[in-house]
Queue: 2 jobs
Job 1
Amino acid sequence: MVALTIPSEYGYVIATGIASSFFVTYLGFKVGGARKAAQIPYPYMYAEKSDAEKDAKKNVFNCTQRAHQNTLEGYPMFLTLLFAGGLGFPCVSAGAGLVFLLGKFFYAQGYSTGEPAKRMRGSFAYLGLLTLLYTSSMTAYNLIK
C-alpha cells in the first residue's frame, strides 16, 4: 500500500483548476454575446450553414460557439490529467495547465474572428496537455510500482 501525501504546492494545481472554471465561463459569455449579435434564438446551438454563409455575424457566432464546444469536449480530460499529475508533480502540472489554458484562449480568440484558420494560434495548448499526460502517467506509475 502506498501512502499518498498531498504536497503544499498542490495549491497551485487547485488554483489552476479554479482559473479554468472562470475561463470556461468566460467562453460561455462570449457565445452569449455572439448569439445576441447574430440574433440566434435559444435553443439553437448553431446558425444554419446557408445563413452563416450570407451573414458574417452568424458565421462569427458559429465559430465562437465551436471554440467553446471544442474546449468543453476536452475539459474533463484536462481536469483529470491536471489533478492526477499534480499529485506527483504539482508545479509542473500547474504550469502545464496554465500553458493549456493560455493556448485555448488564443485558440478561441482566433476562431471567434469568423476565420477558422486563426484558431491555430492556440495550437501550443497541446504542449501543456501532453505535459499533463506525462505527469499524470508518471504519478500513476510511481503509485503502482
Job 2
Amino acid sequence: MLDKILQSFTPARCQMSEVRGQETEVRGQMSEDRCQRTEVREQRTEVHNRMPNA
C-alpha cells in the first residue's frame, strides 16, 4: 500500500522541484536587483558625505 501511495506522490515532487528551480532563478534575479539597490545606496551615502554638515 505505501509503495503505491509513494509512487503517486513522486510526480508531484518532481513538479515541486521544478517550481523550486524556477523560484531559485527568480531569487537569483532578486539578489541582482538587491546588489543594484545597494550600489545606489552607496552612491547616495557618497553624496551625503560630500555635502557639508548643516
